[in-house]
Design brief:
The chain has about 120 residues and is mainly alpha-helical. Helices cover about 75% and strands about 0% of the residues.
């Protein structure tokens, strides 16, 4: 029963997080609002949980949405993004090289957790 209550609390916190993001006209209110609200509550010590089947389904939907945004117009902009596209892998390597030792030594994470925590987007 506790897991169900944690899940319901998490869903409620996420729903409430949408409100200020919509009211303020901030971008992606249905993604960033719940994300921010859950972050604040988790940092405050609240126990939150996720429902794995829903999480997996939403990850797939997000992937399709992002993939569908790659249009011929976007591909035509690639030359203008050449510097950013060149620097992105370098940034990834630098962030990982700096973050991994920090996560291992300072935070005390195990190797796998430190690796994923150090990677941008991980």
């Amino acid at each position: 029963m506790t897991a169900l209550l944690n899940l319901l609390r998490t869903l409620l916190i996420g729903a409430v997080g949408v409100v200020p993001f919509r009211a303020l006209g901030l971008p992606l209110p249905f993604l960033l609002g719940p994300l921010f609200a859950c972050l604040v509550c988790a940092l405050a010590g609240l126990r939150l949980s996720a429902y794995a089947p829903l999480t997996d389904a939403m990850r797939g939907i997000l992937g399709v949405a992002v993939g569908a945004s790659i249009t011929p117009a976007v591909l035509g902009q690639i030359p203008a993004m050449a510097l950013s596209l060149t620097l992105a892998p370098i940034f990834l390597l630098v962030a990982g090289a700096a973050g991994y030792p920090y996560m291992r030594r300072i935070c005390g994470f195990d190797p796998a957790t430190a690796f994923y925590a150090a990677m941008p987007g991980g």
